[in-house]
Design goal:
The chain is α+β, with helices and mostly antiparallel strands. It folds into 3 domains: 150 residues, Triger factor/SurA peptide-binding fold; 101 residues, Chitinase A, domain 3 (Roll); 74 residues. The protein is 59% helix and 11% strand. It is built from 15 helices and 9 strands. The strands form 3 sheets. The chain has a 4-stranded antiparallel β-sheet, with helices on both faces. α7 packs across α15, α8 runs antiparallel to α11 and α9 runs antiparallel to α10.
Length: 407
């Protein structure tokens, strides 16, 4: 079980940066050549990393013991960046302030956001740090390292062919239907029983009889919930039918309107079995009609992603979805439609547009990708080397242990 301290910390880390900036008290955590890194700096960075982990589906720290090294990594990241920025300033590799200001405002405009003066200042500081580091690595250090030659690229391809094996994949359309939320079903049943009780005292004789004539069967010992639901639905139907009369009083009209609302809510409710049956009926309608009919049905009824695009999921590979999904989809040929199946509370129907078998991608296909990979690796190694040199010369003083932040 997570400790209370960790839960509170996680909540704080995921809060907005402005909340930290407005804090009345901030504590120095580390000095790097006289420049301070504060507790808030580390918490903000850790919060950003937690958010990134969650977006990518990566495992986040689950205990105080895991949170301590996570926050330590954040502190070391900030230390590395501080050293690189200090070196960039020493070498007068500082970005143009006016251009940074314009870029911050343009980015905010693209995102449709109005930034406060404080938020603008923070964004400018972050961008200036990023660009200072970029200038340092690109113009001073990277220029000294030769680019990969075609021969080096080919050698890297031969050594790393395992990375370029493309698994079997399929381009698919998908229709998803989901059962109704159980809580909504409970609310609907409460609405039915409440209407059933109030109708027993209705002034209109026909509406009152619609309820009282079923009361004994509803309450009889041994009546199942399904039996009661049948009685309630029949009662609702009788009350709705009473709405055709011209002699209803205001109370009767109110009950009719409520019965109609309950009926309409019930018409769109479905349990897992009903959901599967609905999709099976749709499959029978689509059988043999091809891609366009499937796309039209997806646009009309699907509750899954990309429904407006006809349920088009693009190319998928094994592992994108749960194993039960892969077992069904990758057993189909192009132009085939799956049977109805359920995965993680979603009832699915899939149409396969294209199939490709597993294969090794050729050098010509991946040369650009491989060059980008090698450049990124070379740059990462360059950064690590530069940081190691700078750390060897730096004066770094810790004031507070990271573990104390969780106390």
């Amino acid at each position: 079980m997570r400790s209370l301290g960790l839960l509170l910390l996680m909540m704080m880390l995921l809060a907005a940066r402005s909340a930290w900036a407005e804090a009345a008290y901030d504590q120095a955590l580390r000095y790097v050549n006289g420049e301070v890194i504060t507790v808030s700096d580390v918490k903000i960075r850790s919060g950003e990393r937690l958010g990134e982990y969650q977006r990518r589906g990566k495992v986040t720290p689950q205990s105080d013991a895991e949170m301590v090294p996570f926050m330590q990594e954040s502190l070391e990241q900030l230390t590395d960046e501080t050293l690189l920025v200090q070196k960039a300033k020493e070498m007068k590799m500082v970005p143009d302030h006016d251009r940074v200001v314009l870029e911050v405002l343009e980015r905010a405009k693209e995102l449709g956001r109005d930034l406060s003066l404080r938020a603008q200042a923070e964004a400018r500081r972050d961008l200036e740090r990023q660009q200072s580091i970029e200038f340092l690595l690109t113009y001073h250090y990277a220029a000294r390292t030769p680019e990969a030659t075609p021969q080096a690229l080919l050698a890297a391809y031969n050594a790393r062919q395992r990375e370029f094996h493309r698994p079997a994949r399929a381009r698919i359309l998908e229709i998803i239907l989901r059962p109704s939320d159980p809580d909504l079903a409970k609310d609907l049943r409460r609405a039915k029983t409440d209407l059933f009780k109030r109708a027993q005292d209705a002034k209109d004789p026909a509406i009152a009889v619609a309820a009282t004539s079923r009361l004994e069967a509803y309450l009889v010992e041994g009546a199942t919930r399904a039996d009661q639901d049948v009685l309630l639905d029949a009662f609702i139907a009788d009350v709705v039918a009473a709405g055709a009369r011209d002699d209803l009083d205001d109370g009767g009209k109110t009950l009719v309107r409520q019965a109609e609302a309950v009926r309409d809510r019930g018409a769109v409710m479905r349990d897992p079995e009903q959901t599967a049956q609905t999709l099976a009926e749709l499959r029978a309608e689509l059988d043999g009609k091809g891609e366009e009919a499937f796309r039209a049905a997806a646009r009309r009824v699907s509750q899954g992603p990309n429904a407006a695009e006809g349920g088009d999921q693009g190319w998928v590979e094994p592992g994108y979805y749960p194993p039960a999904f892969d077992e069904r989809v990758f057993a189909l040929a192009a132009g085939e439609m799956s049977q109805v199946f359920t995965v993680t509370n979603a009832t699915c129907l899939v149409y396969v547009l294209e199939r490709e078998q597993a294969r090794l991608r050729s050098f010509s296909e991946v040369s650009g990708e491989l060059e980008a990979i090698l450049q990124r690796e070379r740059r990462d190694q360059l950064r690590r080397t530069v940081v190691m040199i700078l750390r060897g010369k730096a004066a770094i003083t810790d004031l507070v242990p990271i573990a104390s932040l969780l106390d």
